[in-house]
Design goal:
CATH topology: Farnesyl Diphosphate Synthase
Distance between the termini: 48 Å
CATH class: Mainly Alpha
Strand content: under 5%
Order of helices and strands: HHHHHHHHHHHHH
Radius of gyration: 18 Å
Number of helices: 13
Helix content: over 70%
CATH architecture: Orthogonal Bundle
């Protein structure tokens, strides 16, 4: 069991952080060539917002699931649970979540002052969505809506928002590019929820995976990866070099093969890591292609 700083790092769920970095890369690249040069500090601030929101949501999830008893160590595999496994006091994990939200808010406020008040609304909505995913009296993550949250906020909002802070307008290219980004981010959550079907069923957590069942959840995971890759083709109509993102099909073969072969329990931890690698490779290549073609 990790202790001290290692426990906090583990609780932040580092393997999920590509979900925060990729949309900023893609959204910033989509802004290149639209209206003057890119503004570096805004891209950095957008990355800080995205990363801090991801970490905050992970800690908030840990806290809320822990105090509900959903993360009983006897029925769970996978990433470290700080509260559920008794590694940290619930109040400490809650404070860590609030501190991470505060970091996101500070960076977001700087962007709001530079760009416009509308970012304040988007930021507030993102924070509320992160907290109420598993927090509050009726967490929507327990109703099978977690995938919607991830797709919208770590796909569409983060990608389009990263373009918006550069050019101060919503572009069709960033909207289109946000869809595969969102699908790959959501695939990370689908992997988690597929692994946790047994424990979530016992705990009464009605995730989408619990509702769909094992086999259909596996089909959903594969479909998300395949569709994300296929959507590179329409993106390439505007920026032809975006086609290089199709090279991400190579690392995508491993998680697809593992999921289709029936990997379960701890074996799905490897799928989570491999899916994060696919998302990162895809995002870097797509951003590179978008930037080259601008």
């Amino acid at each position: 069991m990790p202790t001290g700083l290692q426990a906090w790092i583990a609780g932040a769920r580092v393997r999920t952080l590509p979900a925060a970095v990729v949309p900023v890369l893609v959204g910033t690249a989509a802004a290149r060539g639209v209206d003057g040069p890119l503004i570096a500090w805004r891209a950095v601030a957008a990355a800080v917002v995205a990363l801090a929101l991801q970490v905050a949501t992970n800690y908030a999830n840990d806290y809320s699931d822990g105090i509900r008893g959903t993360d009983d160590p006897g029925g769970r595999v996978g990433p470290v649970r700080l509260v559920g496994w008794g590694l940290k006091e619930p109040s400490s994990v809650k404070r860590a979540a609030m501190a991470s939200f505060a970091v996101a808010g500070a960076a977001g406020l700087a962007l709001t002052l530079a760009v416009g008040w509308e970012l304040l609304v988007v930021g507030a909505a993102s924070m509320l969505a992160g907290w109420f995913y598993t927090g509050g009296p009726r967490p929507y993550g327990y109703l099978g809506l977690g995938e919607v949250f991830v797709f919208v906020f770590f796909g569409v909002v983060a990608t389009v928002g990263s373009t918006y802070v550069q050019v101060e307008e919503i572009t069709g290219l960033s909207l289109l590019a946000s869809v595969p980004v969102g699908l790959l981010a959501t695939a990370l959550l689908v992997t988690n929820n597929l692994r946790d079907i047994p424990g979530d069923t016992v705990a009464g957590k009605q995730t989408l995976a619990v509702r769909l069942g094992d086999e259909r959840t596996r089909t959903l995971f594969v479909a998300m990866l395949v569709v994300a890759l296929l959507l590179v083709v329409p993106v390439s109509i505007a920026r032809p070099a975006a086609l290089i993102a199709l090279l991400a099909a190579v690392p995508a073969l491993r998680p697809i093969r593992l999921v289709r072969s029936g990997a379960a329990g701890r074996d799905l931890i490897a799928v989570l890591g491999a899916t994060g690698q696919v998302q990162l490779v895809f995002g870097v290549l797509l951003a590179l292609g978008l930037a080259i073609s601008a």
